[in-house]
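Problem: given the chain below (158 residues), write out its structure.
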Amino acid sequence: MAVTPELSLKEGDKAPTFTAETNGGNTVSLEDYIGKHVILYFYPKDDTPGCTKESCGFRDAWQEFLDKGAVILGVSVDSVKKHDKFVEKYSLPFTLLADVNKRIVQAYGVWGLKKFMGREYMGIHRVTFLIGPDGNIQKIWTKVKPAKHAAEVLEAIV
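Solution.
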């Protein structure tokens, strides 16, 4: 059974800023994207079934996101090396952030207790934030269905 995270961030709040290493060995900050819509999607692990489905959904709608002036940033606690393999294997055209020190997942409140097959453990909850051009959170999805998620995010960008 999935546990829905209790987020302290709400729609309308200023999005917490961050700087992180990315696939390809670059570094980005949220401030780099002021003036654009940012889709910040948190996912548990590279190259797992749900995460692959969600990431490939964003990949397949990539041009539509670009047409709306949006940027997609995926975040997990995987390393840059794992992100590089994931990006290459599935031809992901957007940036993945390697939050190995868990600063971003904790700032956004998506790191927490999870339950799976009777086991409890700490991990990333699958949550997406739509951050507006002004740096404020416009929408938060806490119940993400990986296969349909890109379409609902795309629909929310106006």
